[in-house]
Amino acid sequence: MKALLVSVGLRSIPLGGYLLWADTKQLPTSYVPAFRSNVIDFDAAPACWADQPFDFVHYHVPRETLDDIAEDWGFGPVSEYRQSLIEQDLVLAQLTRNIVPSISQEKKPCSLALDHFQLVLGAHLVQRYGGIATVHPPTIGGLAKWQKQRALELLRENLDGSVRLSDLAKECGLSVSHFARSFKTAFGVSSHQWLIHQRINRAKELLVQTKLPLSDVAAQAGFGDQPAFTRTFHRVVGTSPGYWRREHQPR
Q1: Which has the least CB within 10 A, 16, 115, 128, 228?
Q2: Domain range spanning residue 203?
Q3: Which residues pair with 21 in a beta bridge?
Q4: CB-based contact 69:177 (threshold 8 Å)
């Protein structure tokens, strides 16, 4: 499958400590500061060498996904992407800073969250490395009534986020990128954010109506584990699940 390899270093590498090849040719490299990025086409068979341990986050972005995004924004498929070496790309750096805490945990982010992340990443690659100029987002409507109903059915059936964005889009007869923006137009939030609020609402019901331990509440509300449940609940509600339960359970 044709794809781009995006690599973001998490710590600096001294001069001469990092070598990189593409198309069997050694590429010019120098001192590598933390959070600098490389963007290379997989067809170039990229390879690297380092004389000490190093940390990189690698993103594998299919060209099919990039073509879908470009088409949704009114452009044809991008034939060639600019190769980038040790570049200071603030968007890639910030995206990586945001996702590192999640991928460093034993429990990985849900599929739906990663699908939305890939769309954001892909849109940036199309614009910055695909040579597409800055444009205003195309006017787009929301979802038809039947599309809303079908999308919400699938989301409610998969509170754990295991449903893929591609599955939702297919059921609605839309491309992934088109569906994602149409859903946000229709509901004001992304499908993943909508799902999180449904989990929180389900958790509130369990906290008030049962005496289940928080670990069981987390599992039944679709959260991977209790720490993730506690963090998300506090971020959305503004207080811990235990405190909220004490304040809202019937006396």
Answers
A1: 16
A2: 193-248
A3: 26, 47
A4: yes
Query: What does the block give as tokens for 121?
Result: 């990443």
Integer Cα distance of 40 and 70 in angstroms: 19
Burial 217-230 (b: 16+ CB within 10 A, else e): bbbbbbbbebebbb
Q: How many domains does the chain have?
A: 3
From first to last of the 251 residues of the chain, give the pLDDT tens digit. Answer: 689 999 999 999 888 888 999 999 999 888 889 999 999 999 999 998 888 888 899 999 999 999 988 888 888 788 889 999 999 999 999 999 999 888 777 667 788 888 999 999 999 999 999 987 655 555 567 899 999 999 999 999 988 888 999 999 999 999 898 899 899 999 999 999 999 999 999 999 999 999 999 999 999 998 888 888 998 999 999 999 999 999 887 76
**Cβ 34 vs Cβ 96: under 8 Å:** no
Do the strands 84-87 and 3-9 form a parallel or antiparallel pair, or are they unpaired?
unpaired
* Residue 137: inside a domain: no
What's the rounded Cα separation, in Å, for the pair 241 and 214? 8
What lies within 8 Å, CB to CB, of 41 at 6+ separation is 2, 3, 4, 5, 81, 83
